[in-house]
Each structure stands twice: as C-alpha cells, then as structure tokens.
Write a structure and sequence with these properties.
This protein is an alpha/beta fold. It is built from 18 helices and 14 strands.
Length: 588
C-alpha cells in the first residue's frame, strides 16, 4: 500500500518549523489522524546491517517481556479483578514502550487509578465517555486523594440526582409547583439551576461552585444546556442527567440580570422576602445574581440568616462568572461539613473539577492525538498559558521578555547560548516539550524561533508547540470552545505550569493537573517595560474568587474577609480576591 505523505503547512512569513514528531498534521496544528508516521530516509547498508544485528540481540529480551506481560492478567483477573487490570496492563505496556524508546503511548509513574481514589463512581459506560476512566493513563501526577467523607457525600448526592432529577415523578411535581408561583411548604426535592454563559473557564468555575452549594444544601444541580454544555462535557452523575430540560417553564431565565425583579437582592430590597415569612408564602423560585457586578443585597447570599431563608425556596436559579467557593467557607453553617469534606483546603477545586468535568469523546480525541504527537516523548512537559487582556499587548516585546525571564529565572527552561557555538548534549540530558496556549501565535513563534536559532546552555533539546491561535475569544462557538477545552486539558497534563494572572483558563488547568503554577503578573495598561519580578509561585492551586463580599453579617458592617479564617486568604494575582490555601504554605 502506498504511504500517504504528510501535509506541509507554513504560515506566511513564518520560519519553517523543525519537525519534532511523527504525526501527520492538519494546517491548524491538530493531528490529522491517529498513528500516522512520517516517511523515513533509507539507511546506508552498513548502518542497516548493524541495526539488524541489534534487533537479533534483543530477541531474548522481547520473549521475556512477552512472558511477563502475559502473567499479570492471569494473576489479577482470576483474583477478582474487573476492568482495572486491563488499564494497569496498558500502563505497563506503555512504560515498556517508553523504556524501549517508543514514547507514542502515554504512561503513568504508577499503575493508573481510574477512579481517582474513589472520587469517580464505577460502572459508567466507558465507550460513551472515554476520558472519564482513561485520563489517569495520561497523568504523571496522580493528584490528591479525596477524603472518605467526600467520597460518601458524592455517592449520596448521586442518589439524590437520580431520585429527583429530570424524568422522575419528584421532578415533575416540582415543575408543577413552580408553575403555581409558590414554594409550597416542605418540598421533597429542591433544585439549583446554574446558568451557563461567558467563556468556558468561567462556565466551569460557575458550575463547580453551584455543585458544591447544591451538595451542601441537599439540592439537585441542573445545568443550563446552552453554550454547548452537552457537547463539551460528559454527564457526571450515573443514571441521570444534569442538563436542565429545554421545556423548563422559566423560559427567560437565561436573560436574568441584576435588574430582574425576582433576584434575591431585589426581593430583599423591596421587602418581598422576610425572615419571618411562612414557607408556604415564599416565592416558587429566587434568582441568585452572584455575577461580578452584584450589589450589596445580592451579597447577603453569603450570610447565615439569609441561607436559612433561602433553604425554604424550592427553586434557585444562579448566575455567576466567578469561583464563589471561598465565600461558602465563610458561612458558619457550612464550615463543619466543609472541614470534613476537604481536610486539604487547597484541593477543593482539584476534586470538584476532576469529578464533574470530563471531555466528550470528540474533545478527548483532540487531547489524546495532540498529546501523543507532540508531548508524550518528552522527559519534561512545560505548559505556558499566555492571556492578554489588553489588545495592545498582543505583540509586546516587554511581555515576551517577561515570559522568558520567568522561565529562565525559575530554571523551568534552559537558557540559550549567546554565540553560534553548539553545546554537546550531556549524558542523560533531558528533552523538554513546551506547550503554549494563546489566542495569538506571536509569542509562540518568537519562543520557538529562539530555541531553533540557538543551542541551549545545557545541550538539552527543547521543542515548542501551540495547538491553535483563534485570534479572539468567540463566545458560544462550538469549534472554538471545543479547542479551548482541549487546550485547558492539555495544559493540565504538563509537569510544570506557567499561567497568566487573573485568567480563568489557567485556573482550570492548574486545578485539573493538581499543580501550583508560576504566575505571570498581569501587565498594566501603560506597559513600558517587562514586569520585574516577572512571575511568582502561587501559594495554592485553587482559583481566585475575584469579587468577594466584604461584609460582617453579624456586626452589619464592612470587614476584610481575607483575614477571618487561616485558610481563606487574599489572592496574589488579584489582591482584593479570596482563595483557599494551605495555612502552612501561606505567607501574608
């Protein structure tokens, strides 16, 4: 069969890229097909004969490896195993391939734990959502282990989602009650609806926040299906759906805003709600406006008395573009339960995002093909996420200097020789693959060119890759969101991360990967030189709550909420924001 030649793609005016992988690529940078291999140059006869002798010398080793590979299935499967042995054996084969010089398959440093220590439920259909149980095969960092209390809470909540979710009698009764306009006493099931809007990073943070609130208050979480939520993420709960049915009677809920009369803040301001109102007289739903522009009365959501009032409202509709979890830790009513669920306070989002968000098969294909083509063979994988909030910084030499200063000062990448001389690679020198993500390609092209034009001071090889450059953020566009989600996930598979301050894109990647990143300082608008220092090591992998409340609910006055609890502190990238930290690592 004639071998198909790979496409050759080059941007106009761009320097040709050194071929660093063997996968055939489409012009947008994504692998065109799995398993594609570049054509090889014919070897000289002497080298060919030497290679043949080397192959014959390893025949015995191959036979021994085959024997070892055949034994574990017999021992484990007949010892009561299930799917797990096959996963472990695949990982073992991957490590053997890597040891033999074939890095085309992912590997883990230990037998992969497909359930993530019990975080994930067992028994879901693997074919409909491959990423759920395959992701551990691609991670060198196994992540934090969930607490027994969190595991038990998740299994209990899954049962609640099945009992009260869509297409159940309980859900149908709740919908009928919603249509009456009143909550109706003590309902069997209560709900929180998370509105999906803005960028995919914001949507993930918002849904994760809504889920934790739902779990703490024994509510069913239903996610607004708009903005391709069903095409980007697998269903997280077994035996039911988390997607809000499209015939939901509040037809205009996606347009709710700070001005909506049914918002909790407006109902407080207009005396529609009061703490002494009988439950039967409460409205059928309340809209929780927890967006970045929310007002003082909306922020009463983070007060204990207001939570007691809201507990009697059957339907809550929540809009936020924030990670509101640190605010939940400040609520006295939730603190004991949260302490039991998350004894490691700096790993809350790490557990939530790995539990809830699994790429659909299409997105997972984007992730795995790119990973195998460009990242799997490297000894070290460095992810660099560049986010420019000011269009004037799209091609800034100062920001380029900021990026290179960060990776060189922190010894994340080797520095370059100032001359044209070639540094011989030291024995055992590692190879590094740099994965860059950005809306534009300018920084990627410059850094790639640096490591092509000059040798590294250590002699190690550095390859630089960027999957896409969409130019601008495109809200609600399927192809754009799918690639953004794939790139977030690819970043999370890197060993080391450099992210951009304020960016929800970076927050999601560091949470998925369980990594404390180096963070590039957000640049001022009137940028005249590279920030110095260029970056800092974040104290926690938790996202930052960008717009927290600053109110003492008991004393009815302003308060610095970053000084209340040792594990809820101010963010380093957003000084007024709040984030969860390990108190032992935090330095004010």
């Amino acid at each position: 069969m004639q071998q198909r030649k790979p496409k050759v793609c080059a941007a106009e005016g761009a320097a040709p890229e050194i071929p660093v992988s063997q996968g055939a690529m489409a012009c947008d940078g994504w692998p065109e097909a799995e398993g594609a291999r570049a054509e090889r140059w014919p070897l000289p006869r002497k080298k060919s004969l030497a290679l043949e002798r080397k192959r014959w010398n390893t025949v015995v080793n191959v036979v021994l490896v085959a024997f070892v590979m055949a034994v574990p299935p017999f021992v484990v499967v007949y010892g009561g195993g299930g799917v797990a042995p096959a996963v472990w054996i695949a990982a073992a084969r991957a490590r053997l391939r890597r040891d033999s010089g074939d890095g085309s398959f992912p590997y883990a440093r230990s037998p992969p734990d497909k359930l993530l220590g019990g975080l994930l439920p067992d028994g879901l259909d693997e074919r409909s959502c491959r990423s759920r149980y395959e992701s551990s095969m691609y991670r060198r960092n196994p992540g934090r282990r969930p607490s027994p209390h969190l595991i038990a809470k998740l299994r209990k909540h899954e049962e609640l989602q099945r009992r009260c979710g869509p297409n159940t009698n309980a859900y149908n009764l709740a919908i009928e009650q919603l249509r009456t306009g009143r909550s109706g006493g003590s309902p069997e099931c209560k709900y929180v609806v998370s509105i999906s809007y803005r960028g995919i990073g914001n949507r993930i943070l918002a849904a994760a926040s809504a889920f934790l609130y739902a779990a703490l208050t024994d509510r069913v979480l239903l996610v607004d299906p708009s903005n391709e939520m069903d095409e980007l993420f697998c269903e997280p709960f077994p035996g039911t759906t988390w997607l809000l049915p499209r015939d939901f009677p509040l037809a205009s809920y996606t347009n709710f805003s700070i001005d909506t009369a049914e918002s909790y803040g407006n109902m407080l301001r207009n005396k529609v709600l009061s703490a002494d109102a009988p439950a039967a007289e409460l409205p059928a739903f309340a809209y929780l406006h927890l967006d970045h522009d929310y007002g003082h009365e909306d922020k009463m959501f983070f007060c204990d008395d207001d939570q007691r009032l809201l507990s009697n409202v059957q339907w809550l509709v929540m809009r936020t573009d924030l990670y509101t979890v640190p605010g939940l830790f400040l609520l006295t009513a939730f603190q004991e339960e949260l302490d039991a669920l998350f004894p490691e306070r700096d790993a809350v989002f790490h557990h939530l995002v790995r539990y809830l968000f699994h790429p659909t098969n299409h997105v997972w294909g984007l992730v795995t093909r790119y990973y195998r083509a460009y990242l799997a063979r490297a000894d070290l994988r460095l992810g660099i996420q560049v986010r420019n909030f000011d269009p004037r910084h799209a091609q800034s030499p100062h920001i380029l200097q900021q990026i290179t200063s960060c990776v060189w000062r922190e010894k994340l990448l080797p520095e370059l020789l100032a001359t044209e001389e070639h540094a011989a690679p030291a024995p055992g020198a590692r190879s590094t693959a740099v994965l860059m993500t950005s809306l534009r390609s300018w920084y990627y092209e410059r850094i790639k060119g640096m490591y092509w034009d000059r040798a590294t001071a250590t002699g190690e090889d550095v390859s630089v890759h960027q999957p896409s450059h969409e130019g601008k953020q495109q809200f609600g566009k399927r192809s754009h969101d799918g690639r953004a989600w794939a790139e977030m996930y690819l970043l999370s598979l890197c060993d080391v991360l450099v992210t951009s301050g304020w960016s929800t894109f970076g927050y999601v990647a560091q949470g998925l990967g369980g990594a404390r990143p180096w963070v590039l300082h957000k640049q001022p608008e009137n940028l005249t030189s590279a920030p110095d220092p260029p970056c800092f090591r974040d104290v926690s992998m938790e996202p930052c709550f960008h717009a927290p409340h600053v109110y003492d609910c008991k004393m009815k006055r302003g308060m610095d909420t970053g000084e209340v609890l040792p594990h809820v502190r101010h963010c380093q990238d957003v000084s007024w924001g709040l984030k969860l930290v390990d108190p032992k690592l935090y330095k004010a």
